[in-house]
Every structure is written in C-alpha cells, then in structure tokens.
Input
Amino acid sequence: MASLAHPQPEARTGGNAPRGHAIDAVVLAVLAVLLVAGVAAWQSLGLTFSKCWFLGATGLPCPTCGSTRALLGLGHMEFASAFATNPLLVLTAFLLPIHAGLTLLERHLGVFFLDPIRRAATVRRVSILVAALALANWIYLLVALPR
Output
C-alpha cells in the first residue's frame, strides 16, 4: 500500500521542463536589463546614490561594492570600467540573458542540453562555482577598490 503522506516524485524525461524555471529565467533577465536602464536613468536625472553602510562601518568594501558604478558603466556601454568596478556583476549581466534563452529553448522547443541525472550534478557544480566566484569577487574588491 502506497503512503499518501510522502508521494514519490515522478522522474522527468525529455519533454517536460519545469515551467516555473523558464518564467523565472525570463523575469530575471528582464529585471537585469531594467536595473541597468534604471540606474543609468537615475544618474542622468542628477540623482545620487547612498553610500555603502558596510564600507562606512568597517572601511572595507562589501561583497557587492561597486555594483552601482558597474551598472552605470554598463548603462553607458563602458564595459571595461564596469568590469574593473565589479567583475561578478558584469559577468552575471551577460550570462543571465543567455541562461534565460537556453531555458526558453528547453521549455518551448524541447531542446535539452543535459539529461535529468547529469543536470542535478551540473547544478551542484555550478552552485560551488558561483560561491567560489562570489568569494573571488569579494577578494578582488578588497584588493582593487580604493578606500
């Protein structure tokens, strides 16, 4: 007799990628573009941004320090200065639309790049890579940004 309290998950096969993941990827990509445009518009109006409280309290840049300046650089198509200010933010800004496109391909065209078993292992590896990149980015900010 099957337990009703803990139903077994159904194995996913080729044609049914999770719909929510595709929508999330598109929403994040659109929000990234709107954020870059919004920061550029904010500055063009002559408005200022508040200072980083972490930097003010410790004298050290926080893991996201330079993000506003990087977004401004992206908004003005100054990619080198944006990358120098916060490399991880710029990398994310370029990879997020690619991720959204690949997710849409999987969801709507049934083009799958990894089978479900390899996908789980890849997600774990990517999670570790993202954590390592975030740490490397913070170390870069600690060393490179003026205080």
Residues 114 and 122 are 9 Å apart (CA to CA). Residues 1-17 have pLDDT under 50 and may be disordered. DSSP finds six helices and no strands in the chain. The first helix runs from residue 19 to 44.
